Amino acid sequence: MALYDMENPWGPDSDFYLALAGRPALAILDIGCGTGMMATAFARQGHAVTAVDPAAAMLDVARSRPQGQLVRWVHGLVGEVQGSFDLAVMTGHAFQVLLDDETTLAFLRAVKQRLSPGGRFAFETRNPDARIWEEWAKPLVGSSVAGATETAHVDIEKQGELVSFRSIYRFDDGTEISSRSTLRFASQATISALAEKAGFSRQIWYGDWDRQPVEAGSRELILVAGFA
Ligand SMILES: C[S@@+](CC[C@H](N)C(=O)[O-])C[C@H]1O[C@@H](n2cnc3c(N)ncnc32)[C@H](O)[C@@H]1O
């Protein structure tokens, strides 16, 4: 899990979400919070933050962060979270773990149920049109991630919207860690229709972290969803 943090440092996406929350203190729900970098950043800005993740090991790292005690950590899925929130976020492309329409719609409905009037849900997913998984095939020789001398994504398989791959980390002492993941690359049209069905009638889309509109080559599909 420390590996996850080394590979996913603070970036323009984090700035985007922090700016979206703004200054007056909000009640924020961070869904799929992972190791909690974003959740603790929100809390340091004075927001009241609840952060939920199904992975206990991720939450262990999150809880032990400096000022991790400022956040209410919940082990589980969004449906298990109590409370009402002004802003829900799902960062780090975590949305792509939702692998089909049924799961995604149930998820979006569960998020909406937890928003107060005027509340928003913001998240991003990688644009399938940019075919980013093709770049993942290149071995990252020589990169250093928490003592790992090389990382690579191998056995990349694409079936429809789903891309599966194995991530490999090799350490100087010869040990190797690998894990297999599957992510969905849903189109903007698919996500927009599901969000609408879940009640998110107001949708603002961006194609990058500078808030440019979505274009054919945009790498990100960023949605800030609200309702009347
Ligand atoms: C790529 S990480 C992103 C973590 C964090 N949001 C970030 O930006 O660094 C994906 C996270 O989603 C969590 N996750 C997996 N399935 C989930 C689900 N059904 N609902 C919410 N989170 C889930 C994983 O445990 C993991 O912590």
Automatic annotation (TrEMBL):
Segments traversing the membrane: none
InterPro entries in the cross-refs: Methyltransf_25 (IPR041698), SAM-dependent_MTases_sf (IPR029063)
Keywords tagged on the record: Methyltransferase, Transferase
Gene3D superfamilies in alphabetical order: Vaccinia Virus protein VP39 (3.40.50.150)
Entry keyword annotation includes Oxidoreductase: no
GO biological process terms, semicolon-separated: methylation
A Pfam family it matches: Methyltransf_25
Domain Methyltransferase as annotated: residue spans: 28-119
One of the record's GO molecular function terms: methyltransferase activity
EC number in record: 2.1.1.-
Protein name: Class I SAM-dependent methyltransferase
Organism: Labrys neptuniae
